[in-house]
Design brief:
The radius of gyration is 22 Å and the shape is globular. The strands form five sheets. The chain has a seven-stranded antiparallel beta sheet. By secondary structure, it is an alpha+beta fold. Strand 8 and strand 9 form a beta hairpin. It has two domains: 271 residues, no CATH class; 168 residues, Serum Albumin, Chain A, Domain 1, CATH 1.10.246. Helices cover 35% and strands 19% of the residues. Helix 14 packs across helix 19. The protein contains 19 helices and 21 strands. This is Gamma-glutamyltransferase family protein. InterPro entries: GGT-like_enzyme, GGT_lsub, GGT_ssub_C, Ntn_hydrolases_N.
């Protein structure tokens, strides 16, 4: 059972689980969380609050997301869980031949080739139109104000910004990247922690999106600017690609774990990896959290699931195996039996065939949202559309160029995607949203959140505070500095290649809002970031 007692937190933390009745917003950036809460206070619902927080994060945490990124959401409303996939496809001109002609043997990180159609603005408009209560222009107003008038940088954002500036200064020398520097380093350096930063271009773009319900971005003036910028520097994204885009409502996927249903967005996201790992783990019993045996089984299950995910997950229209195949109990048992006393060198199985921001919101009416949005690798492609503040993502970097791979690049195809929102229900009633952002750490973070809460009875804040591990590749596991050393030594004796992380930056940043049986909201926020819970 999930523990909601604030007094039970065995881990050192500066925070405790927070409680509220009328509404709650959990985010890694305090200004964004408060923006979401302000919308709730004005009569908006949890969906409005999620949009307000997400849009604000493009301004106050541009190191992790932006207007030119993608988004996914799980929404509990009207007694049902809905899924929204707002990831964009490859442009129609982006072909294997185009990559090969340009001399690329793999997808590059930066520049125009990894830029796919951005889905985030469409997500805001779609969520607002279907489930929102307030006008989109009112919901986006806090973000526009911060972009226009400025805000002081928070510590985690400031450190990430400086790191990005230093990296880009070394790697991004071509003329097409100068707009990133003029937008995000106008003084020839990254803004400092506590320093006021503003972006009038960003404000104008958000205002246009709000007034046109994102039509300006996909078929209007903003689309024209993206098209012009792409053509000028040899990009393959065109206005036609933008105009053809529409986010997709999808049916969430789930498994039952310890009596709770754990929900994820279906592929092309890799929430399926977390579900496959949990499906393997549910055949084991865990009595003690801080034991080498408990960690060993979690790590081994995750490794096996991840290898399958990397082989089989792609745009769902191109996958040779179904979600049902990969989540079958027969296959989970087959993979479970591969786990022994020693660390495995993981390989894909043979199933029987049949820098991101995360936020959570809830209101007093029962609506809850699990939402995630990203540019990938921090600021993304390194490209900023002139006079717009739009930093374009680089999600196409995850495409394979192997013709035999399910995730091989094709025009109009969505790439394997790392950002995933999570949600818990029990007996067809909502428990609530959870998520851990951070590239390929995300399904690993989801697994650790679920096991911490459901196997080891930690409260929401303790669930996030607990030391994390991260599978890197092969038998290599990276551990946070707070991970128990005696357990690390025991894992090494089991054959794991143990490495200690220099900092906690790669272990993800999570948020949780869960509803108690009597309707009280209980929230935890990430201690590894500037996490904040705004509540009412």
């Amino acid at each position: 059972m999930i523990n909601f007692d604030t007094l039970y937190n065995p881990y050192v933390s500066r925070r405790m689980t927070m409680y509220a009745k009328n509404g709650m917003v959990a985010s890694a950036q305090p200004l964004a969380a408060e923006a979401g809460l302000s919308v709730l206070r004005k009569g908006g619902n949890a969906i409005d609050a999620a949009i307000a927080t997400a849009v604000c994060l493009t301004v106050v945490e541009p190191t992790s997301n932006g207007i030119g990124g993608d988004a996914f959401a799980l929404i509990w409303t009207k007694g049902q869980l809905f899924g929204l996939n707002a990831s964009g496809p490859a442009p129609q001109l982006l072909t294997l031949h185009a990559l090969q002609k340009a001399g690329h043997k793999e997808m590059p990180k930066y520049g125009w080739f990894p830029v796919t159609v951005p889905g985030a603005p469409a997500a805001w408009a779609e969520l607002s139109a279907r489930f929102g209560r307030l006008p989109l222009s009112e919901v986006m107003a806090p973000a526009i104000a911060y972009a226009e008038k400025g805000y002081p940088l928070s510590p985690t954002v400031g450190r990430s910004w400086e790191s990005a500036f230093n990296r880009y200064s070394l790697e991004l020398k071509d003329e097409q990247y100068k707009y990133w520097f003029s937008t995000f380093a106008p003084q020839g350096r990254a803004p400092k922690i506590g320093e006021l930063w503003h972006s009038p271009d960003h404000a104008r773009t958000l205002q246009a999106i709000a007034e046109t319900k994102a039509r300006s971005f996909y078929s209007g003036v903003i689309a024209d600017k993206i098209d012009e910028f792409s053509k000028k520097y040899g990009g393959l994204l065109r206005k036609d690609d933008l105009a053809a885009y529409k986010p997709e409502w999808v049916t969430p996927i789930n498994i039952n774990y310890r009596g709770y249903d754990v929900w994820e967005i279906p592929p092309n996201g890799h929430g399926l990896v977390a579900l496959m790992a949990l499906n393997i783990l549910k055949g084991f019993d865990f009595d003690i959290k801080d034991s080498a045996e408990s960690y060993h089984k979690q790590i081994e299950a995750l490794k096996l699931a991840f290898m399958d995910g990397k082989k089989f997950i792609a745009d769902p229209t191109k996958m040779r195996l179904s979600v049902e195949d990969l989540l079958s109990d027969v296959y989970a048992k087959q993979r479970r039996e591969e786990i022994g006393a020693r660390a495995l060198q993981p390989e894909p199985g043979n199933p029987p065939q049949g820098g991101t921001v995360y936020l959570a919101t809830a209101d007093g009416e029962g609506n809850m949202v699990s939402y995630i949005q990203s540019n990938y690798m921090g600021f993304g492609s390194g490209l900023v559309v002139p006079e717009t503040g739009i930093s374009l993502h680089n999600r196409g970097h995850n495409f394979s160029l192997d013709l035999n791979h399910d995730n091989c690049l094709e025009p109009g195809k969505r790439p394997y995607h790392t950002i995933i929102p999570g949600f818990l229900t029990k007996d067809n009633l909502p428990v609530g949203p959870f998520g851990v952002m951070g590239g390929f750490m995300q399904p690993q973070g989801h697994l650790q959140v679920v096991t911490n809460a459901l196997d080891f009875n930690l409260n929401p804040q303790a669930t996030l505070d607990a030391p994390r591990w991260q599978w890197i590749n092969g038998k290599t596991i990276e551990l946070e500095h707070s991970f128990p050393e005696h357990i690390a030594q025991a894992l090494a004796r089991k054959g794991h290649d143990i490495r200690w992380a220099l900092d906690s930056g790669s272990f993800g940043r999570g948020q949780i809002i869960w509803r108690t049986s009597d309707g009280i909201l209980a929230g935890g926020t990430e201690p590894r970031a500037d996490g904040h819970i705004a509540l009412w």
